[in-house]
UniProtKB/TrEMBL annotation:
GO terms for cellular component: mRNA cleavage factor complex. One of its GO terms (biological process) is mRNA 3'-end processing. Its main location: nucleus. Keywords: mRNA processing, Nucleus, RNA-binding. This is Cleavage and polyadenylation specificity factor subunit 5. SUPFAM superfamilies: Nudix. Belongs to the Nudix hydrolase family. CPSF5 subfamily. It comes from Steinernema hermaphroditum. It is found in: Nucleus. Signal peptide: none annotated. GO terms for molecular function: mRNA binding.
């Protein structure tokens, strides 16, 4: 088991902090070897949207009815050769994303993330996965009905169309994950080689936003 403390990720100062705050900042995150986990497959779930255009059209229609969309994503960490890696889902040949999805109206963020992780990666043999949601570590805001997202609300935007909150998920020491056959494949990205979006996630403070 490899433990990575928050101070390993983020430059922090101890000035004017209470002992409790110091404990939170320096709390260790346990990373377990990739070889501790087994990856299976399950039947693919039907896609709600068949194209990017259809997705944003549905977002527009839902916005008129219930307002801003609320989404969550999970940051699941393991290590390989003692280097931290992040688990991503691969859709098609070129698109990678954190596991997550849309919350139902009024649904709690943590409970919603656990539901989505179970639907996406949960086992089909009746055994439940242990999704321990630790911290909110960042947010993405979508100003309009189009792809660009930002880690802040742009000054000219008064009504963002989607808020996505990222949570650190502590994995158990060992586990079995299932993924949708032919639709998604779990892959690993090293934190030092991750995309611009994930790099921003890694730089986000470990705090609720």
């Amino acid at each position: 088991m490899t433990s990575v403390t928050a101070s390993t990720w983020f430059a922090t100062s101890s000035v004017n902090r209470t002992g409790h705050e110091e404990d939170l900042i320096n709390r260790a995150v346990s990373l377990h070897p990739l070889t501790n986990y087994t990856f299976g497959t399950k039947e693919a779930q039907a896609e709600r949207d068949h194209s990017v255009q259809a997705r944003f059209q549905r977002m527009r229609e839902e916005y008129d009815k219930i307002g801003m969309r609320r989404s969550v994503e999970g940051v699941l960490l393991v290590h390989e050769h003692k280097l931290p890696h992040i688990l991503l889902l691969q859709i098609g040949s070129t698109f990678f994303k954190l596991p997550g999805g849309e919350l139902n109206p009024g649904e709690d963020e943590v409970e919603g993330l656990r539901r989505i992780l179970t639907e996406t990666l949960g086992r089909e043999d009746g055994e439940s996965n242990q999704w321990i949601v630790e911290d909110a570590i960042g947010s993405w805001w979508r100003p309009n009905f189009d792809p660009p997202r930002y880690p802040y609300i742009p000054a000219h935007v008064t009504k963002p169309k989607e808020h996505t909150k990222l949570f650190l998920v502590q994995l158990p020491e060992k586990g079995v994950f299932e993924r949708c056959r032919l639709q998604m494949t779990t892959v690993l990205f090293s934190l030092v080689r991750c995309s611009e979006e994930l790099q921003a996630c890694c730089r986000s403070p470990v705090r609720a936003i």
